């Protein structure tokens, strides 16, 4: 099982110097993947409910910025990290498709994948923060359908077999255009996040994997039958859907093994301290080999 950690590109510790030290240390310590997070706008007031906990949560004034500021943009950060690392994979947990232009997004992702020599994995979601989309003048209605088409457009641009590519959908209509640069991976793996039944159905229908938010292993175990059922409804072999998870709780070999026993492909650990990053590498990762 692959073990990863979040890139500290948001929050009080975030700085170019700290991101460099963290990412190079993580790679040297044997972590398999580094994860970025995605928010472009941090509104003072939020009426949208945060929907990933067991019950939707109300967000206090300035709560987003108190957690995420300074907020170094995710795609730019991944390009930076691609240049200072050699082996470790780069992921998004998760990118909000509803706030990103699909054509620009395809080009940025292909670029990062090329710069990193095929190390990118793209976790996506439909988003929960309407105020963010409003500030960016991006549509919020029918965002499930928009996300489905966004994913289709990404793959079309990445895998076009000829000199030109075109795309004709409900929300995007592209005349023939040059598809280069194409990513190293054909296509870049796409993981679909979200805990609702529609999100799990989207993962089963369109995803290379399903990515869960941070949670205890018992909660994840209780959700996996729903993911399996979604695969059955979509005619998908559950074993072909990679499961990506994020541990909530104490980082121990035993707890990590419990996720592994559930068939988790990749597990993100809740490490925020550089000393702990090194310690877990020395004392835990070596026992997982």
What would your notes on this structure say?
This protein is α/β, with parallel strands linked by helices. The protein has one domain: Luciferase-like domain (TIM Barrel). It contains ten helices and ten strands. Strand 5 and strand 6 (173-177) form a beta hairpin. Helix 7 (197-206) packs across helix 8. The longest helix is centred in the middle third of the chain and has 17 residues, at 143-159. The chain is globular. The termini are close together. The relative contact order is 0.14.
Multimeric status of the protein:
single chain
| Tally of structural domains | 1
Strand order of the largest sheet: 1-2-3-4-7-8-9-10
Report helical residue fraction. Answer: 40-55%
**Percentage of β-strand residues:** 15-25%
**Average pLDDT taken over every residue:** 95
Structure summary:
The protein is of the alpha/beta class and 289 residues long. The chain has one domain: TIM Barrel (Alpha-Beta Barrel), CATH 3.20.20.
Name some characteristics of this structure:
289 residues; single chain; alpha/beta; two-stranded antiparallel sheet; globular; 10 helices
């Amino acid at each position: 099982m692959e073990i990863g950690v979040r890139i500290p590109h948001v929050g009080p510790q975030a700085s170019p110097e700290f991101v460099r030290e963290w990412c190079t240390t993580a790679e040297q310590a044997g972590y398999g993947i580094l994860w970025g997070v995605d928010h472009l706008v941090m509104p003072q007031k939020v009426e949208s409910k945060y929907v990933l906990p067991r019950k939707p949560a109300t967000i206090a004034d300035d709560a987003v910025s108190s957690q995420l500021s300074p907020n170094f943009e995710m795609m730019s950060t991944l390009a930076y990290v691609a240049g200072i690392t050699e082996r470790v994979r780069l992921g998004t947990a998760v990118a909000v498709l509803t706030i990103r232009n699909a054509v620009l997004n395809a080009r940025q992702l292909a670029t990062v994948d090329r710069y990193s020599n095929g190390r990118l994995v793209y976790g996506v979601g439909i988003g929960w923060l309407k105020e963010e989309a409003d500030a960016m003048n991006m549509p919020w209605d029918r965002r499930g359908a928009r996300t489905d088409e966004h994913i289709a457009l990404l793959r079309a641009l990445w895998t076009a077999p000829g000199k030109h590519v075109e795309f004709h959908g409900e929300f995007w209509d592209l005349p023939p255009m040059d598809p280069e640069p194409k990513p190293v991976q054909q296509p870049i793996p796409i993981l679909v996040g979200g805990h609702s039944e529609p999100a799990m159905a989207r993962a089963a229908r369109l995803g290379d994997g399903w990515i869960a938010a941070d949670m205890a292993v018992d909660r994840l175990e209780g959700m996996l039958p729903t993911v399996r059922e979604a695969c059955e409804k979509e005619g998908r072999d559950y074993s072909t859907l990679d499961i990506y998870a994020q541990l909530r709780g104490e980082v121990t070999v035993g707890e990590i093994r419990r996720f592994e026993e559930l068939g988790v492909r990749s597990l993100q650990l809740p490490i925020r301290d550089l000393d702990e990053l090194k310690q877990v590498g020395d004392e835990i990762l070596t026992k997982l080999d």
